[in-house]
Amino acid sequence: MTNAPPKKRPWFQLHLSSCVVLMILAGAIVGANCLGRKGYAENADGSERLVYTYRTYGWPWDVWTEFTDVERFENGRFIRSIDRYEAATKPGTSALNNPWGKIAARALKNALVGLSILAVTALACEWIIRRRERARAAQEPAP
Q1: Cis amide prior to 10 (ω within 30 degrees)
Q2: CA dist 46 to 50, 56, 82, 93, 94, Å?
Q3: What kind and span of H or E run contains 105?
Q4: 6, 20, 50, 65: which has the fewest Cβ within 10 Å?
């Protein structure tokens, strides 16, 4: 019988429990980015008031804003619902429009934040597991 020291695990190899934690966390990050959050905005112009209902997608930065409903009020009374494309061309709605350059930049930032969270979590999980393995190995009596 040879008394060879145990093989050292490669630094890039992940344990199954770490992979399960990362999979659950990745699902939560994707869900936060894909499930829209509802919001409201108003645009008042004299006696006319527009109430926008919209959904935003993306986390932690909003990547995409989608109009779901626009209602027009005059002197406090509901007049009619406006087509969302007609409402997007009204003055004062530029804060809700989506310039394509910002969409790409925000999506990239969201991806980097998500990958950073996953990397830190993987390192933390592996550090805890390997520290526990080293403590067990130190407690075992030498043969």
Answers
A1: no
A2: 11, 28, 18, 16, 19
A3: helix 100-139
A4: 6
pLDDT in tens, 108-132: 999 999 999 999 999 999 999 999 9
- pTM, whole model, 2 decimals? 0.72
d(CA 50, CA 43): 5
Closest residue by Cα to residue 54 from 43, 40, 64: 40
User: Per-residue pLDDT tens for 60-119?
Assistant: 998 888 877 778 788 877 777 766 555 555 544 444 455 777 888 999 999 999 999 999
Phi, psi of 43 (to 5 degrees): -135, 110
Whole-number Å distance between alpha carbons of 79 and 88: 18
CA distance between the termini of the chain: 11
H/E stretch holding 21 reads helix 16-34
